[in-house]
Structures are given as structure tokens and as C-alpha cells.
Amino acid sequence: MTTWEILLLAVSLAMDALAVALAASAAGYTAQLRPAVRLAFHFGWFQFMMPVLGWWTGRELAGWVADYDHWVAFLLLAGVGAHMLWEARDANREPLTTDPTKGMRLVALSVATSLDALAVGMSLALVGVAIWYPSAVIGLVTGTLALVAIQLGNRLRGRWGRSLDAVGGLILIGIGVKIVVEHLRH
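The structure assignment produced for this chain is given below.
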């Protein structure tokens, strides 16, 4: 994968965390520096670790699915992308009602916003991509974008969350299609 592809992947995976950070900021939960940094750090950390866990799992499965690994990678990425598109159409998302920057709520949101990264890590293992550099980029991009989202949250008031999910979903589907096309060329 090129650096640009990794950056696109990282940005697309960060969309869920970005949307939650926008919502938390718009709801006033991140007005102080400490909760803002805590939220961004957890989102970045989980986005770093989940691809690594997925990659290790994918490496174990790679021998069994070598003949059709490109299709598995495509299905995982397309599935995650389609899920993001599906969520983006939901105009009735409930606003945050409890502080998302503390306790189990923070852990649950961190896991929920990084499950896509687990599937992406599996996909990267199946197509033979090393994980540490992409995973570090994914974590850093997510943490940084979450901080930016927190800063912009009061201005945007969460209006762009669904659109960001849709863009991220389309990018993931596009990367999956690229993997299949590249494999079919060889």
C-alpha cells in the first residue's frame, strides 16, 4: 500500500470517531482540555490496536483462504463500508445523553468506533500488507481528527456526522474494489 492509500484508509476509518467527537463537543462534554484529550487519545489508541488484532487473526487464517483472500478482503471492506453508508442514512440518531469521556461509556465508544479497523486489519493480513506502519498512521490520524472535531464541534453542531460516515464508507468500498481489481490483473 502506498502512503496515500494508507492515509485515505486512516481518514475513512476515523469517520465514526470524528462523528462521536463532534457530538460530544456539541453536547458540551469536551469543553475542558482533559476530557477532550482523553476522548481523542482513547479513539486513537483503539484505532491503532484493532487493526493489529485483526491482522494477527487474519495471518492465522491466511493459509486457509490464500486462493480467495482478495475476495475476503473485498467483502470485509465492502461490508464495513456498506455498514457506514447504512448508518449515514439514519437521520434519527440519538444524541449523546451521558458523558462519553469517562468510564465504560468511553471504552464502549472506543471499541464501537474501531470495530471497522479490526476488519481492515484482517484484510491487510490477507493481502500481505505489514501492519505496524498503517496501524500507527490510523491511530494518529484518528486521534488528531478527533481533536480537530472537538474544536470544531460547537461550530458545526454535529450537522456533518452522517455525511462523514458516508464518505468513509465509500472510501472503504473503493479500497476493497481496488484490491480485487489488482488481484485480477495478476
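Interim note for the steering committee: Residues 3-185 form one domain. The chain has one domain: 3-185.
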